[in-house]
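assembly run, all chains below
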Amino acid sequence: MAKPKKTPRPKAQTPKGFRDYFGTDVTDRADMLSKIAGVYHRYGFDALESSAVETVEALGKFLPDVDRPNEGVFAWQEEDGDWLALRYDMTAPLARVYAQHRNDLPNPYRRYTMGPVWRNEKPGPGRFRQFYQCDADTVGTASMAADAEICAMLSDTLEAVGIQRGDYVIRINNRKVLNGVMEVAGLAGDDKEAERGIVLRAIDKLDRLGQDGVRALLSEGRKDESGDFTKGAGLSEADADVVMGFMDAQRATGPETVARLRELVDGSDIGTKGVAELEEIAALLDALGYGPDRIIIDPSVVRGLGYYTGPVYEAELTFDVQNEKGQTVQFGSVAGGGRYDDLVKRFTGQEVPATGVSIGVDRLLAALRATNRIGTTEQGPVVVTVMDRDRMADYQAMVAELRSAGIRAEVYLGNPKNFGNQLKYADKRGSPIAIIEGGDENERGVVQIKDLILGAKIAETATHEEWKDRPSQFEVPRDQMLAKVKEILNQ
Amino acid sequence: MAKPKKTPRPKAQTPKGFRDYFGTDVTDRADMLSKIAGVYHRYGFDALESSAVETVEALGKFLPDVDRPNEGVFAWQEEDGDWLALRYDMTAPLARVYAQHRNDLPNPYRRYTMGPVWRNEKPGPGRFRQFYQCDADTVGTASMAADAEICAMLSDTLEAVGIQRGDYVIRINNRKVLNGVMEVAGLAGDDKEAERGIVLRAIDKLDRLGQDGVRALLSEGRKDESGDFTKGAGLSEADADVVMGFMDAQRATGPETVARLRELVDGSDIGTKGVAELEEIAALLDALGYGPDRIIIDPSVVRGLGYYTGPVYEAELTFDVQNEKGQTVQFGSVAGGGRYDDLVKRFTGQEVPATGVSIGVDRLLAALRATNRIGTTEQGPVVVTVMDRDRMADYQAMVAELRSAGIRAEVYLGNPKNFGNQLKYADKRGSPIAIIEGGDENERGVVQIKDLILGAKIAETATHEEWKDRPSQFEVPRDQMLAKVKEILNQ
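ok done. output:
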């Protein structure tokens, strides 16, 4: 007879594409976010934490017109029929919050927010389905001063967390200029949307495809190495020249770049307006002393998102790192944003101009680690070992004494029988010091202090010559324990 | 002919039971959590942030045996058939994390975590479906020293965030003692589970039903005001006496309470073990100086959750507040926890003892507000008004100067035409000071400083007598602006 089946044990695993963060992964990020919040606060931005869950209709873009509207989002249906979803960014929720609370909020409304967002995408190496974003936006003003302010604030923020001047650059462009270039190249009008899409994607691929590849996509099309053919935008040679000229419009100084862009969009109202906006931002930043060592005008910045309507900006880290293949590459983008004047309108029917930036928190943290701005490990606690199970209260009193002097300390709470295990534990904890007090020490009113950092150094050295005058374990009277521990920790 | 229907505008609303947090709601909580993390860190607890999303099977309790397993959780099905869900507490994810990473974690593993959890419950007034929890747990040790340590740490934590000694009490009990009492009252054995449930619920209702009501539920049953009858546990008079005696077992001192409990569970092994555990915790806390002004043994603490297996503890704030009905009541519970030795076993098959506490973050924050430990408002930024749209760069330079001295400051970015609107804006922002510099001031090299706090005071006073020597608006040379602002802000 078959045995009755037991319920199988659940697998102890994060769902695919999710991860856990331990120790300094959590605290380093919290420290960095706290520094960022400090800058944002000083700029007059107020904190906001919107709910992680939104209605699918409020999030937009992902409408419940299919059986399961989980294209890109994690969504589920409520008993009352409503579809809810986890936010996939901080901008859509901001538009909802502003529309909902606009009568109570200051106008313009400057806000910052930091927290996790969720994407229902195929997970890949280093690509997670939950990650942190940290955004700052100004809602309710069309003034270019708002865009300039956010670029200046982004610059201050990067330096506040530890990225040095010269190790980053903030690039600014304007979508209206790009639209003007399209207009000049004959791609205005609703019937040219597909072609404009091809041009946008081609510009975004300049790094990868090179000038020739992009030009092929602008005209007839391009066959890639595998033989697959990608249809082009069908531009004439002259029109393609206009677009190519746009990508190549950067000059030595901001004013020269602006002058070149003005030539390129000649005859296009929207393009000319975009150039004027760029010029205004550049003048404001210049007056504040944010020169090209920090912020530059760069026509090659496009930004993927469809909703941008004016200035777009991007922060890039320019120092070199090794990629997974061992090649030396620039670290790259850590933040980006721009002006989006139509998002609140979805709710209220009225146009509400807005602009804002989003920092990729995990990437910025990785950058700080790559440049040794923050350590990846921290010193563990002082571990008080347990020599005599019945004297737990005495050991607890020792850690309490250390803690009240601000020193991180803990009693070993595992099975105390095997003393070797206690030292292995202290090692795993990264402990600088272990305290030992057996019955003999207790009678004599002393404790043993084991300097684990020094001990590790001695173990690494072939001869003990160098350390012979510094024993890594010594005895001190119990009432001098705290003073000695402080001395070893340089506190 | 009917007009073509437009897509209706989405409603700008948080989903039912969710809310947004603004300004100090966010920053006060962050400050409080940072203080709590400081205490936990000093006790040797490591930070952990597990993913917000778990597989339904890892969360447990909510198995996908119905079409939609959303009893209490927000859950959805992945394309590959797996059910995922938002975590509903921090304990189930800890068990999963420990089982998954146990070979890399120190043993015992002390960890703390803070973040939102989600409950798919019917929302009610003041009851939200997303809220914060802040937990500390020690996994991998059966030692009562771990439980004592968490109670001491909870006490330190409450004082660190601003709850004064005397305004709180931590109550400790032990589930084994309760099980022992049940055994003595004849309710041991698998066939008595329903009766044990009735007794547990009856004890939990002592506050509301009083001694007579509880006693009725212990014996035959009870008819409430509406005439509905609740079946009782069917205990004899003598057995009901045992249970009633348990609830009434608290004595003037810990040792006396322990002695009384020992009498009550006489003859029950599990009960006697529970009393010994309570005694051990009490002795450890006593040796560390955590007396009955902070931590007491209280047999009436039961804790709702089914998974507790030993010590249970609860922190209660004892000061009075007004409830919604205007009645004066004690603030009540803000944290609770206990020992749960079976949760990791679900994954690994091996019993892993664990104990931990969870702080109700929103309630503790409300308590700090109720006792004025933290303000509910903060001072807004200095607002630099815009008198001349073309001189935006000058105004930006003013705020930059203020900020570099650490002063929160912003330029008005709305339409500057109506100066009254700018002052209304400054008022809405809670600004202490507005700066005004028109063309005339600019020519003369001065700025106007408007002391808005003083101005508000003057407006409140019937006569200006009191303030006549202190004008609320005055002129200073531009290069003295910073010094004067600092003076007004007492910086």
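Chain B has two domains: 24-52+87-186+235-370, 382-488.

The CA atoms of residues 47 and 112 of chain B lie 5 Å apart.

not gonna interpret more than that til we talk
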